[in-house]
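Many introductory courses stop at the sequence. We go one step further.
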Amino acid sequence: MRIDLSFKRLATLLFALFIQVALAQEVKINGHIFDKAGLPIPGANVVLKGTKVVTQTGFDGEFTINAKEGQTLIISYVGMKTLEIEASKSMKITLQDASNELEAVVVVGYGTQSKKNLTDNIARVTAKDIQQVPVANVQNALVGKLAGVQITQTNGKIDGGINIRVRGAASISAGTQPLYVLDGIPLITDDESSNGAPTNPLLTLSTNEIESIDVLKDASSAAIYGARGANGVVIITTKKGKEGKGTFSINLSQGVSEPTHKRKWLNSKQYVELLQEAGRNAQDLESVEEELEFLSQGTDWRNGAVNTDWQDIAFQTGYTTDADFSLSGGDQKTRYFISGAYNNTVGIIDSNDLERLTSRVNLSHKVFDNFTVGMNLSFSRSLINRVQDDNSFSSPLQSVAQSPISPARLEDGSANPNTEYSNYLLAKDNTFWKTIVRRLTGKVFAEYKFLPSLKFNSDFSYDLLSQTEDYWQGKNAPFMATDGAVFASSVNTENYISSNYFTFDKTFAEKHSFNAVIGMEYNNYHRRYQDVNSIYFPNDDFNTIDGGAEVNEGHGSETDYVFVSQFGRLNYAFDNKYLFKASIRRDGSSRFGKNNRFGYFPALSAGWIISNESFLKDNSVLTYLKVKGSWGKLGNAEIGNFASRQLYRPNPYNLKSGLTFDQAGNDNLTWEKSTQIDFGFEAGFLDRITIEVDYYQKDTDGLLFEAPLPISSGAASVNKNIGQIRSNGFEFTLNTKNFDNEKFKWNTSFNLTTNQSKIRSLPNNNADVIAVGSYTINRVGEYISSFFLVEYAGVNSENGDALFFKNTLNPDGTLNKDLTSDYSQARRVIVGNPFPTLMSGMTNTIIYKGFDFTFTFQGEWGASIYNTAGIYQSTAADYYDNQTADQLNRWQNPGDITDVPQARFQKQNGTQESTRYLDKSDFVRLRNLTLGYTLPKQAIKDTGMSSLRLYFTAVNLLTFTNYKGFDPEARRDDGGIGEDFYSAPPARTMALGVNINF
């Protein structure tokens, strides 16, 4: 067929014109992206909607992308609100902060997810929420900021242990603390203390290296961690370098500390008067005055010649010094973050201080466009000068029991050895307990993208916790009979983790979004412990093991465990409305019995974003509404390494080796199982108010208990999975933007949590479980570890006798409320709960021009504390211990109305263990307060600094409570639940600091 040549020329011309017009419509769109402060944002993603065309901003926030004017660009950056905007020439775009907003990205196990599409329950704080809080540990900076999470330091010692309860208790006898994961590394959290009081293994972390902390609270979020997720999971993410111009930051602060509260004690005159009265009432005045002569050490005790304030000696003014720096930046290939921090904290307890050094290097390098490798490495060293546990006479605060008529020191300055109890100043002068904790964490990782939607991650991680303890006692130390002694211990704990997983993330037809993770993990834990004791030293200048004449004792142990796991997770969203998630993990561990070596931990959750439906999509009042629910099974593997094994222990005799049967084995022993549900909704109003309400329920089955065995078996008991508990309650979170304009911003975050943790079944046909010497009971239908005490009824106004309720059972099952002065006739009853049933926190952040002001209130209600020391310090002089000032209100004459019985020396008038020493610990506390001022840029423009901020910050500034003890958060550190025993209050700290950025 012949085609006319002129027609061919015309067609060619038209085609060329069409191409030219098409090309003319697609141009290069240029623009800059800034944050709300006007600073450029490097590394922001710019996507042409509906296409694979994507670019990133450079150092100055500048980008170029091929697009047509009028097409939609999607701008996103971590921590900022995602923005959709029409393309135009010379664009200037400002992104808004997404903090506490639905667009924020939260960290989940082995990935991240937008909060908007989250069906789990995850609480989150970021670096700005915890920075510059003058506390020695990371956990204390979180108090009051997370719904459903109770954080309590055991007492006011710097090294004091930390207890975290996520949505109440999930166990009675197994571990109750959450799993900590640092950059994908399950951290070692073993308490390696040898002096009876726990230490906090996470003292090794510094807040300056942390980007965010996400707490996985429900089963749907935590099930990806399987057998270790029942108590919640705390995911700590450290800072990383960002593409763009390098930044250098310095923070310096100096603060002072004092106790939140001091108790009132008797002075010398009051003490003598009360003891003489008690002696007369007991017809024993002569022996009382003989002891007063001894205690006064030859001074005129009758006229108050000595008036020692032992409490004032035990406490001291504390100091905190913080200095840290960070260096970060990167380009399109390499990103880096380098930081270092120094902390020196002198505690409020005499002889208690901490010095810590931390450093971190995080690097990532893009080898190819689809292949990235990196490394996270950190090291810390903490030196802690410790004091003995609360139940030791050498502990400073036990000195409040000493008589005020006793001199603390003799005329030559040496400690007075002739006090009623051992003078702790002898321990201060002649002993030390030094603990050094070193921690090394590292991770090397690689990420390979097979496709834009499919990647493979391989991580190898290592965590080393190394601790040494040295306890020296000189020849003049309390209770010393061997001319000195030295105890030295060393423990090295290692954790190797290998994680390999695939991630698929793709949206089909702009409506079907899939995110799937599948992988495996291997975890190998190893611990080696040694200690040795040496005695008989030539003099106190020798205080190491080799200085003693005899190494008289030594111990050693070695243990390990292994976890092998496979896991998978699928997230699906349809049209950004209907959300679904399923996950499962298979855990196998050497800890479990050989018949139950592996366990499966599934979880399901779903959500519906109702506000994306057509009938609500354009609603200007109800801007967001989502309902969600989840179900899942979790495990608690903190049952010890050998709970399932039949064990023998060495038992040498007369220099001959031998073995003794130690523990019966149970091949069926397994993890404690926790089934959890969560239902709730999230709502947003006017783009200024967000509300989140949830109901949760945790049912734990297969509690670890020792079940009795017949005597013929050769063992008294065997570990079994018996018993059930339930924790449930509501969580409420409210975030508001009260004012939001360029000059004045005011945001409020409020959270409220209720919790009830009760026992549903127990071993031995639901028999009560009461530990020997304990003041608590575990009983079906009651709170876990309920207080179980005789009920104090006050004082007989006619004769000053202490009275108690009998509380014996009547024939109809009611309690007999008759009164008796005979303690043996009174029956113990459940009288309180050691754990709060209501918790709350409220944080306000106000920014006005260059000023920023943030404060957090925290409150707890429903708990009680039993003062175990009450039977010594509040007895109206039953013995020679100094007394609390309220004992001056004792009964003295018929008709006196008081709750303090008549003073009767050594007659036990109301001094027995009862609710007389049980007190409600409800409180509200101004937990944190920070006031800062950032200098105008013009004032520092010639200094090379990009910003300069001065600030004042405080912790535990105010406390509102009716609790009579030192502090409603102070607990004894040598054991017991909900008990106070000469336990130090937290520190009130105020500090001044400066932030400098270059």
